[in-house]
Amino acid sequence: MTRLAFLAARLMRRESPLAALSVDQPALLADLAGCHVALIGNARALAQGDHGAAIDAADRVIRINRAPMPAPRSHGRRTDWLALATRLPDADRARLAPGRILWMSPKRKRLDWTTARSPGFYLHPLDDITALRDRLGAPPTTGAMMIELCLRADLASLTLYGFDFFASLSLSGGRGAAQVPHDFAAEGDWVADLLRQDARLRLIR
């Protein structure tokens, strides 16, 4: 696909040409088979911990959006996958140097050409986003979508760091819970249910 064709598909909301740029979901999930995965949220409280070494010891380290990393001690250094729902400034792209980018937002107009043409690019299906939105009663966060997606894989474990469902706000901005469209209480209850049901999932508080 040329850049002009990409821009036209994005403008006209033509999903099929955009999806053709993506690896398919089974191939993506196969890349997690047998892996110990660390999914890093952006809660401010994570910066007070010493989880960096444990994060970097995971087989796959997945970060979210602009992924602030105040210190290796708390956040580690690696970024294998980056789950995006916003445009990524060039400086953050260079800093994170992700091996794979996953576009998780239903807002395809935000998807840029550089991201769409990056190695291993993945576009999360609109039907999957809608199903989780209906389950939660509100638009899901990027973190929630990644939890749901990762648990579809035959992975060994999924450990969540930096997830406190906005109790300590976010390192990536100054907005409060009332200023974003997500239902953090519903997401917290949903994750609590998953923790009871799936022994592979662990939440580091």
User: For the largest beta sheet, what order do the strands appear in spatially?
Assistant: 5-4-3-2-1-6-7
Globally, the shape reads: globular
The named CATH superfamily: Glycosyl transferase family 29
What count of domains describes the coordinates? 1
Rg, Cα atoms, Å: 16 Å
Q: What fraction of residues sit in β-strands?
A: 5-15%
Helicity range:
25-40%
Secondary-structure class:
alpha/beta
For the largest beta-sheet, the strand count, sense and barrel status come to: 7 strands, parallel
CATH-level-2 architecture: Alpha-Beta Complex
Number of separate strands: 7
Mean of residue pLDDT values: 94
Uncertain stretches: none
The CATH topology is: sialyltransferase cstii, chain A
Number of helices: 10
- N-to-C span: 44 Å
Any key phrases for this structure?
205 residues, alpha/beta, sialyltransferase cstii, chain A, seven-stranded parallel beta sheet, 10 helices, 7 strands, 36% helix, 14% strand
Summarize the structure.
By secondary structure, the chain is of the alpha/beta class. Helices cover 36% and strands 14% of the residues.
Question: What would your notes on this structure say?
Answer:
36% of the residues lie in helices and 14% in strands. It has a single domain, classed as sialyltransferase cstii, chain A (Alpha-Beta Complex). The protein has helices spanning 3-11, 15-19, 25-30, 52-56, 72-75, 90-96, 113-116, 126-136, 142-150, 184-197, and strands at residues 36-40, 60-64, 81-84, 100-103, 122-123, 157-161, 201-203. The model has no long low-confidence stretch (mean pLDDT 94). 33% of the residues are buried. The protein is globular, with a radius of gyration of 16 Å. It is of the alpha/beta class and 205 residues long. It has a seven-stranded parallel sheet with strand order 5-4-3-2-1-6-7, covered by helices on one side.
